[in-house]
Design goal:
Blueprint: H1 9-35, H2 39-59, H3 68-77, H4 79-98
């Protein structure tokens, strides 16, 4: 028998919520980056969004097929940190102009 570590539904729900939040933030930043003509940042955001899709699909599947490795993959990817790095490139020029 496969001895995968049990993953609680609560943790799966939390990761799905984070993915939803990240996707919402990506959409917001894509609009800003497109308006500012920051094509490299738009490409980075689209790539980040593409990385989320298979993970989200897996997590929305049957809970008994989700392994600890799947969640660890999300944590290791550090999506928020990557997103924040891109956000700085997009929003910092406008913040500097305001001051």
């Amino acid at each position: 028998m496969d001895r995968r570590e049990f993953v609680e539904q609560r943790e799966i729900t939390e990761v799905l919520r984070q993915i939803k939040d990240i996707k919402r933030e990506i959409q917001r930043l894509v609009k800003k980056a497109t308006k500012a003509n920051l094509t490299a940042e738009v490409a980075q955001l689209n790539e980040l969004s593409a990385q989320l899709l298979p993970l989200e699909t897996t997590l929305k599947g049957s809970p008994d097929t989700i392994s600890r490795d799947t969640l660890q993959e999300f944590y290791d990817a550090q999506m928020w940190e990557t997103l924040n790095g891109i956000r700085i490139k997009i929003e910092l020029p406008n913040e500097i102009k305001k001051n």
